[in-house]
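Async update (no meeting this week)

Hi team, since we skipped the sync, here's where things stand on the single-chain job. The sequence we agreed to prioritize is pasted below, unchanged from the tracker. I ran it this morning and attached the output directly underneath so nobody has to dig for it. Comments welcome in thread, and please keep replies under the output.
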Amino acid sequence: MKACIYARTSRLEKRHTTTKIEHQVAFCLDLSRRFNLTVEPEHVFTDVEMPGDLPPTCWAPENEPSRPALSALIAAIEERQVSRILVRRLEKLGTTSLVLDGLRDLLASCGARIMVSRELAEDPSDPTARYAMSTLQPYIEFDLVEDQDRRARLRAKKLEELERLRAKVARLEGEIAEL
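Output:
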């Protein structure tokens, strides 16, 4: 499955090493390996020193500040070049209802999903992260495909075991009734 990476820094994050573009991209490449996704170099989108409240260029009024890389990501999704977005933290995609609602609608219409690490997505101390999570929740995937397959196999096994137990209970009830 083809995926893209989105990384963004704001002017406020200049001194934080974990938010540097190269660290975000490296994190997302690792995530792509964990999810068994393919990321082509042309599908690595970065906006440097851009606040999360700026809209993508394709949604912004003319001559207004905007995020061109997010606009390119949107085009890649609309053109079905990619179906998964990898991000280090959800609020990198956006921090306002305009951006997050627009992304939610885009994901819904194109069948795309966001892949993110659960640990970094669920930060209860960060209101921006909580807002992004609540807005994009239906389109976020945390678990590996292998984990989903493993759970499906385990569920099938448990259902088989339940049927065997029901048959045994029915047999025992029959034996008790004969006594």
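Quick observations from my side:
The mean pLDDT is 89.
The first strand starts at residue 2 and ends at 8.
Reply here if anything looks off.
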